[in-house]
Amino acid sequence: LTFKLLKSAFSLTMLIWWLPAALAVLLLQSAAVTETQAECPAEGCSEAALFVSEDEAEGTGLHLLQRRQWQQIQAEAAKEQLPPPFEDDETSTFDPTSFLFDGVDSHPPPLTPIVVPAHKKRSLNLHFNAVMASCNPRIGDPQKCTKVVTKSARSLFTQLHVKARVEEKIPPLSHEETTAFRHRFSELVVGGSKSVMMKSTKTEQYGGWKQLVIKGYDNMRPVVSKSMVEFINAGVGEYTAHWDDSFIKVSVAKGKSKLGLDITQEEEDAMRNETLKATETDMLEIDEEEQQKDVYSSTFDVREHWPNCKEVTGHVRYQTCNNCWSHATALVTESRLCIKTNGAFNGPNAWLSQSFIAACRMDGANYCRGGSGLLGFKTVTRWGVPTGGPDFRGNIQAGVQTCYPQILPNEANVHCPGACSPFSHYPRSLQQDTFYVQYNPRGLHPAGRQTPYLAKKAMVEDGPILLGMRIYQDFYAYKNGIYAPVKKSWNRYIGGHAVTGMGFGPGYVLAINSWSTAWGMEGAFKVAPQAIDFGYFIPGHMTQGHGLGAAAHLAMPLPRE
User: Fold this and answer.
1) What angle in degrees, to the nearest 10, is found between the helix axes of 117-134 and 202-220?
2) Which of 123, 166, 437, 471 is most solvent-facing, going by the fewest CB within 10 Å?
3) φ and ψ at residue 30, rounded to 5 degrees
4) How many CB atoms neighbour CB 125 within 10 A?
């Protein structure tokens, strides 16, 4: 009896001793689970609802640590003002993205509970097991599958979003932005999970589902947020950003469809070699006095320099898929053709077909696939190009007829056409309408000391050139001023983009985008030279070419209405 009493007393003592520690662990796990598995109400979920505030943390085991963090954040915020405009990095280097993230201090992360990494990994596994059990194509119930995946998507969105905000990989979002973001993510995960579960092995299913969740969150995030625009307009750069409510619906994935410049390692090496060769030859044509000046100290605008071609050089297109390179090639070629013919190639139908260039591309790839900066010039040199108006969002006059106007991006089996479009009432055939020109294009690496001088020389002598840029999220909100990407961790790289270089001025290069006149300065923008970090693509002097099976000609004059 004595032994049993002593044993009971010892057990009671141990219980009293370990009870506070066990309670603290339970509270820690409870806080983590609350964050990672909290669901939003039916009417929507604001970003603020994803984080635990100081008052809500009072009753948890983390409140002491959080209160100290909160006090530190408040103390720093009281002293901290918006950072001054970032200085341009004038150093030349072959790593054109290094100036974007050079140790810039960011604001303290928002207050949020601590989530144990092991718990997050186990949570993802549990979600996968639930999805796999419910979405098995042989025994699963489609309705149950949708319900289970929707619930998992909500929980995973909360978990991923909290992590991204703490790491400042995404800027603060409003109620509407967060709700739209979560909806896009959920739709993607629900639709993608069913196809992922069709894979043959569990390893492939898990790998595919994990990639769907992680990359899905990254691609469904908003490309521009209102807080981003407000931050830019607070004076951190030399340009003004514009906010439009339509941005709420625009994801990063959709933003990527407005790009399309791809530079392979082989092409970059060729650009380096061409740039080194240019040092020994082309720079001899530029006198030393000119080289001592700032390359863009004067002002030049192709549209003003050749006023009789202003109607052509003022063209602005609207691209509908990843073929920006073909839009820039078309504008460069039609502008130079007008300049070359002293204004003879002019008028409402003096548009060259971007769709013909993309459909007849020399690499044989898909119409909507990205391409290099020289691909369009090589294609025009090989096949020529007929007339072709832009999408209705381009600034073409209503009712103007051309041979092969811009086609829809979702058309199947797009091949190089052998005739004008059957939907166009154009008075002559494709063979009669094709303009055969010859280019000797070259790509110059942006790090070359002589590159901007050669680009300037090409624009002054012959007209527009093609520019290659790395695009970051803030570019989509550009309105006016001199653009350079803001140095913030949430301003992330999206992809390569080709635009048309149309001039220059002190501290900038003037360019034309292919996103309609509703963007930027009626389709145009000024960009800091260091932001042209993919390359300069110069077509060379335009000469009259020879078409296959046809006499050498420039299909002049154009038909008049």
Assistant:
1) 110
2) 166
3) -60, -40
4) 12
* 426 phi, psi to nearest 5 deg: -105, 140
Which residue in 362, 375, 330 sits closest to 535, CA to CA?
A: 375
Q: What pLDDT does residue 138 have?
A: 64
Look at residues 375, 359, 468, 469 and name the one whose alpha carbon lies nearest to residue 409. Answer: 359
pTM over 0.85, yes/no = no
Question: What is the spatial distance between Cα 311 and Cα 313, in angstroms, rounded to a whole number?
Answer: 6
Q: Cβ neighbours of residue 94 under 8 Å, at least 6 residues apart?
A: 272, 445, 447
CA 534 to chain centre: 14
Q: CA-based Rg of the chain, rounded to a whole angstrom?
A: 29
Asked if 296 and 507 count as a contact pair (C-beta separation under 8 A), the reply is yes
Cα 247 from Cα 265, distance rounded (Å): 34
- Which residues is 498 bridged to in the sheet? 468
The single residue listed with the structure tokens 């092409």 is 267
Both tokens assigned to 123 = 């949570």
Helices (H), 287-446: 288-292, 302-305, 310-313, 324-340, 354-359, 375-383, 430-433
pLDDT digits (tens, 9 = 90+) for 133-168: 788 766 667 788 888 889 999 999 998 999 999 999
Three-state SS string across 230-282, please?
HHHHHHHCCEEECCCHHHHHCEHHHHHCCCCECCCHHHHHHHHHHHHHHHHCH
- 248 vs 221: CA distance, rounded Å: 10
275 has a pLDDT exceeding 70: yes
Q: Are 329 and 294 in contact (CB under 8 A)?
A: no
**Whole-Å CA distances, 477 to 4, 489, 499, 503, 521:** 76, 17, 16, 22, 12
* Dihedral class, residue 427 (left if φ above 0, else alpha if ψ from -120 to 50, else beta): alpha
pLDDT surpassing 90 at residue 40:
no
Q: Rounded to the nearest 10 degrees, what angle do helices 265-280 and 451-462 cross at?
A: 80
Q: Which amino acid is at 202?
A: K
Cα–Cα distance, 391 to 323 (Å, whole number): 13
CA torsion 431-437-438-443 (nearest 10°) is -110
For 179-205, write each residue's pLDDT tens digit: 999 999 999 999 888 888 888 888 888
Cα separation, 456 vs 477, in Å, equals: 27
What confidence tens digit (pLDDT) does each residue in 51-85 have?
433 333 333 333 444 444 445 545 544 444 433 22
Cα–Cα distance, 85 to 258 (Å, whole number)? 28
Amino acid, single-letter form, for residue 17: W
Residue with tokens 């190089």: 416
Residues 405, 387: contact at Cβ < 8 Å? no
Look at the block and give the residue holding tokens 């048309």.
500
Residue 27 host element (H or E): helix 2-37
User: Cα separations (Å) of 79 from 75, 107, 147, 236?
Assistant: 7, 12, 48, 18
